[in-house]
Design a protein that fits this description.
The protein has eight helices and nine strands. Helix content is 29%, strand content 15%. Strand 8 and strand 9 form a beta hairpin. It has two domains: 156 residues, Alpha/beta knot (3-Layer(aba) Sandwich), CATH 3.40.1280.10; 63 residues, tRNA(m1g37)methyltransferase, domain 2 (Trp Operon Repressor, Chain A, Orthogonal Bundle), CATH 1.10.1270.20. The chain is α/β, with parallel strands linked by helices. The strands form three sheets. Strands 2-1-6-5-7 form a five-stranded parallel β-sheet, sandwiched between helices. A two-stranded antiparallel ribbon has the order 3-4. A two-stranded antiparallel sheet has the order 8-9. Helix 7 crosses helix 8. It starts with 48 loop residues before the first strand and ends with a helix.
Length: 283
Amino acid sequence: MTDTPDPAQPAPETPDTAKPGKSHGRLSVRASLKPRDLMEEPLHVKDAWRARIITLFPDAFPGILGLSLTGKALDLGLWALEPIDLRPFGQGRHLNVDDTPAGGGAGMVLRADVLDAALTVAAQGTPRDRNRWPLIYLSPRGKPFNQAMARRFAACDGLTMLCGRFEGVDQRLLDHHDIEEVSLGDFVLTGGEIAATALIDATVRLLPKVLGNQASTEEESFSDGLLEHPQYTRPAVWNDLPIPEVLTSGNHAAIAKWRHAQAEQITKTRRPDLWQAYLRRKA
């Protein structure tokens, strides 16, 4: 006796019919590459800023992004997160997504044909203008990520990120799609998921209403090219160390002057590169 398919159950999706992965947000439901519980599925506000992430580990998201202020903003629909599982786009019986490097060498390289299929799905419903919707590959050889880049991404409609694994991605894919490579720093991670999380956090916190107090983003490190001034809070004296007197004076002009001087000194001492750039802008 064979099992009869339940007509109430939808047919499983394939890469040919799949749409971008599950959305973490409010007010709309999107198709995903794997079954999900719609009772637990966050909804998505129309026109909210969106991050689409092509990854072999979709369950890594939202992770820490689902907590604190970014998590609250996610629940309120101020932004949306759409992981896309790369595995279903794999080739052959075992859904292989990688192969050995041409010319020999250690490790494996993510295949161009597999990634191209995933990017086709990820592009559905997104603007073709890269100024409105950047396409990013997280790579240690990319342009260093900084606050200016976070502000640029926050001003877009959203972005798509490709999380690498193994020895990287077939160069032909990067060239064909003119993918922007972005680096989190001069070090190597086992994959792009942690870097993607950091990039999204730095970007999402700049979106309107996410932090609640816009002044927070205006006064912090890098907002004016300087590192942030020192911060203090209660108790007024701790371990015989008092809060600097100027901060408790109530003189807001003096406080602002002190903080700016501290920011300049810290930047000059700790980040000579930023200090020189700051001086050039002032000149």
